[in-house]
Structure formats: C-alpha cells, structure tokens
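Sequence only, no structure available. Ideas?
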Amino acid sequence: MRDAIKALLAATGEFAVVAEAETGVEAVQKCKEVQPDLALVDIGLPGGLNGIETTRELMRHCPDVPVIILSIYDDEESVVSAIRAGARAYVVKRAAFVDLQEALRSVARGGSYLSPHVSDRLMARIGRGVPAAAARHALVEHLAPRELQVFRLIVEGKATKEIAALLNLGVYTVRSYRKNMMRKLNVNNVAGLIQVAIAAGLIGKTTPKG
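Reply:
I predicted one. Tokens follow.
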C-alpha cells in the first residue's frame, strides 16, 4: 500500500515521500529525525502503537508536524478519537485518491479535512442534539450569541440560505457572521468547524438506548 501511495503522490508532482515507517514507534523516531511537512499515518499500524496512539506520540514529540489519518473505518468514534488525538485530517481508504490529495493540500495550507462521507455522518450526529454545557466550552464561549447560532447550524449541515431564513437574517449578514466566526476559531472550512465541535463536546460517545 505504501508503494502505491508513493507512486500516486510522485505522479502529482506536489508531494515527495521523505521517510517511511512500518510501526508507530518507528514513525515517531523518523519524524523526530526528518521533521517532515506532513505525516500520513495508517490507523491500523502494527507493532505496539496503533494509528491513534502514534498520532498522540507525534503530537508530543513533533507538535509542528500535522497528521493525516488514513483509515478503513468511517464510524464516528474512530474519527472522533483521531481528531482528539491531534489529527488534522481523516481520510477513508476506500475514497478516491483525489480525496487524499485534497486532504494533503488542505493540511499543507494550514487547514483540516474530513472525507465527505465522514463529514456527513458527523454533521448528522450533531444535528440530533448537542449538550447545553458545550456552548460554554473554551473554544466557543468567546463567540457572540448570533455567531454561536450560525456555528451550530453550519455543523448541522445547513446552507447559508437556510441559516438566513431560520435566523431571519440576510444572506450577506450570515456570510459575515460565518467569516468572523471562522477567523475567531482559526479554521477555514466545515471540517475545521467539526473539529471544534468535537473538542467542545458537541460530538461525544453515543448513549446506548434502553
């Protein structure tokens, strides 16, 4: 799989593989030695540290190296665990290569990325309800009340026109709130907002029914 990814990346002319590792422990060591611009980590790494644990160790030893998780799993808990560990992007393996390419580009620019299918599922989960205490989380408490409303509606998957209608605002006013909110939260896309929502507790473990 590594050979296939290397070949595809080489064909783009945008990215070069400067180091490889078979295990999480080796990945951390290579990262400390090479200090790459990006780290692509498989969630199912062998050898003691899985991809989530490896990401935590990379954040501890190489905090300036953003991590992209590559995974066979698209369930909410795997995605939440990866982002809480510090991953800046989560790409599902069955997605097209263009998905990984876009994730690498976005993270290289300082942004974040989630595979579209993963984003859809997480936004649907947020839409099922969020705890009131989450609004007091440090990452969102400095938003103005209207910005917080826009934030919640965006992560629920609402479009700008829908938000404008729901809040009885003009489309340009909603866009202004969105721009200011993203600036305050230091994100530049919906995937980044979902990361904030996860960190704020707006997405947590599902409570078993019954």
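The chain has two domains: 2-114, 128-199.
Hope that gets you unstuck.
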